[in-house]
Design a protein that fits this description.
about 300 residues; mainly alpha; elongated
């Protein structure tokens, strides 16, 4: 499930925590990163479990309208295409999916206000109206609709952000990635595949294609960063004589250490790739000047110019 870019982000956060608290043991730092990785898959599961409750919200609207004192003809004979979509039963009636959701104790029941607002927003979307107006639809159309919901409606939703922040401190940057995996699930369900829990590391699903272990990849870097942290800092300090430990941004320090550690843990990886990866992370997590700072120092420290 987790590709190497997101693994580098998890790595960076673990190294950042260690840079802030160097009393942590290696075992504690590794456990922190493992928890963070597992949390990304948990978020995928929580988001995917939205399918049933959102469909139920639509159904409850229909039933409430039918129960009115004087319902209109449209309310008595509503369009049931969405509430009868084929994706919902594939998940809500799947024993493996329902079992793991129950085990994780994931539920949208207390977030009824969010579900109401989300459904109201979706009903006004052009793609939803076009879906509802189709004369005929099948599983592919249903999956496409859900994919659009995951693609367009969840990111930058302040209500959802508050919910996720309350549920897990590890979810604050994984929403987009988890939603992309929900879209992949919709495509697989539309193709007739049954839902299955994605392996945590992408290489675990390689089906014998010879991919190196992603878990080994990231843990080798983490151990190198932890073991050599002081030595890496000394090398950084040599190139930044005007900066002392307290004046170097911890975010930048962690990123540079990660780049140095990856270069030593995986010498076959080109310097250009390593530098680009951590510069991209810097753009999202540090100051506007950080990307050039990280780029310049890593270019000198890795010393493996192409």
């Amino acid at each position: 499930m987790l590709n190497r870019r997101i693994l580098r982000m998890k790595l960076f956060k673990a190294v950042y925590c260690y840079a802030e608290n160097q009393g942590m043991t290696l075992k504690e730092v590794e456990a922190l990163m493992e928890t963070s990785c597992e949390a990304a898959r948990d978020l995928y599961l929580f988001l995917l479990s939205l399918v049933g409750p959102l469909t139920a919200e639509a159904r409850s609207r229909i039933e409430a309208a039918r129960s009115k004192f004087r319902p209109t003809e449209e309310e008595l004979n509503p369009n049931l295409r969405f509430v009868e979509n084929g994706i919902t039963p594939l998940l809500t009636q799947d024993p493996d999916f329902t079992k793991i959701i129950s085990k994780k104790k994931f539920s949208w029941e207390q977030y009824d206000v969010f579900l109401r607002h989300l459904y109201e927003r979706i009903r006004d979307r052009k793609y939803f109206k076009e879906y509802m107006e189709k004369e005929e639809s099948g599983l592919e159309d249903d999956a496409r609709l859900w994919s659009r919901i995951y693609e367009r409606e969840l990111e930058d939703d302040p209500e959802l952000e508050d919910i996720l922040e309350d549920m897990s401190i590890y979810w604050n940057d994984d929403l987009g990635y988890a939603a992309s995996w929900c879209r992949k699930t919709m495509a697989s369900l539309a193709a007739g595949e049954r839902w299955s829990l994605p392996p945590l590391y992408r290489s675990d699903a390689a089906d014998g294609r010879g991919l190196d272990s992603d878990k080994l990849f990231v843990y080798k870097i983490l151990r190198a960063a932890y073991t050599n942290f002081a030595a890496y800092f000394d090398r950084i300090a040599e190139l930044t004589p005007k900066w002392n430990r307290d004046r170097i941004c911890t975010t930048d320090l962690a990123l540079i250490v990660c780049g140095m550690a990856e270069s030593e843990a995986h010498p076959g990886t080109s310097a250009k790739i390593i530098i680009n990866e951590y510069v991209e992370i810097a753009k999202g997590y540090s100051t506007p000047e950080s990307s050039s700072f990280v780029n310049g120092l890593l270019d000198k420290l890795i010393n493996k110019h192409e």
